[in-house]
Amino acid sequence: MDIAFHRTIWRWHFWAGLIVAPVLLVLSLTGAIYLFNTEINDALYAELRFVPPHRDTVPVSAMVRSALAAQPGAVSRVDLPAERNRAAVVFVAPRAGPMRQVHVDPGSGRVLGSLVAGDTLVGWAEALHASLAIGTVGDRIVELAACWTLVLLATGLILWWPRGRWRAAGVLWPDLSLEGRRFWRALHGPVGVWTAALIAFLVVTGLPWAGMQGDVLQRVTAAAGVGYPASYRTHGAPDSVPMKAATGEAPWTLEAAPMPRSAHAGHAGHAGHEAPPTTDDATAIAGIDRVTALLARRGMANGYRLFLPGTPDGVYTAFTYPDRPEGQRTIYVDRYRFRMIGPEVRFADYGVAGRAIELGVAIHMGNYFGRANQLLMLLPCIAIWVLVISGAAMWWKRRPAGTIGAPRAIPGARLRGVAAVLIVAALAMPLFGLSLVAVLLADQGVRRLTPTPA
Length: 454
What we know:
Layout: H1 3-35, H2 37-44, H3 46-49, H4 60-70, E1 73-80, E2 88-94, E3 100-104, E4 111-115, H5 121-131, H6 135-160, H7 180-206, H8 211-224, H9 243-247, H10 282-286, H11 288-297, E5 304-307, E6 315-320, E7 329-334, E8 345-346, H12 352-364, H13 370-398, H14 416-428, H15 430-449
Antiparallel strand pairs: 1-2, 1-5, 2-3, 3-4, 5-6, 6-7, 7-8
């Protein structure tokens, strides 16, 4: 590896680290919390989440009425538990304030209490992890950080590759006998090389949830016929809306799938929503029991989320979201005729890309193979903190006082292969491509205005 190439890669590694380090610390911490979301919520809110085991349950409509009596407002959805010692959760939009999750004992219909998800530790972690809790701008920042993390990993592996004579300590495992900057370097490299694949996996499987990249993937996979089922591409066209816009939540593969509509003369297709529609319509609430009976006949008796119709042509939507996505099922029911609309959608109906992304997401979230999955995904979260801290320590110790300390660029580096990879990545990830242009311009400006010694 020639000096010019090495120095250029080091410079890119430096800038990539500078861009992503603060966001990576937030994402790794909140991701580690969310890996154990069930355990944390069970420990903090046991009185809301657990009930005496029951054989029979009250009608779901009775659970909804109990929730509305305790917390007046309008309901959007009911989560029915998969286990007999778990509470049902009714999502109620009160007359003032944020959505509340009202926990109800399915065996007695008794309300156990309520909470605002965003006020909980797990809710806080989820909001920060998705968008730094600042909406669309935060979502874009998180997406950029994820894209630049791939650059950071690639350049880091190139820099790690031994040049000339080397010894295993400090290359394959940390050399704890060193001091100062050499110690941090001997820690940084081995931790990075052993966890790079896991960190890359987290990034790649997280990008489908990003605002711009997720939309690109949805459109491309749908157009190529490898996303949501082909039979749903024109479902409810031309005035239907995507499932996520209509319900506020959906399996990734079906987020952009057109929602069906209940057959009701005189009403146009429903409009899009920033939040899931809610209803206090007594008829829609009473109809829940006919819907749950239909679902039970289809083998969906528990462990699913049921969304109520919030508009005159809305539908009842039920879907399962188990730890293993092979069990995902989605059923739409007409709110007036109480008949299924279209065929049931199962995991096997997804295109190959949809199935792959759903599997990746399940592993990313630590769900697919139990505690071992959680611990495996916790490892890169811890490694990110070690890498950021050791990288910052190296930078601080080598940085001349009063300067940013960026490695000096050396002309003449042969970067054709690297440039080709970056161009392909920029085309595949549009937001990354835009940021790449911005970084190149900024780098040129830094070179001209504040040249940095080696």
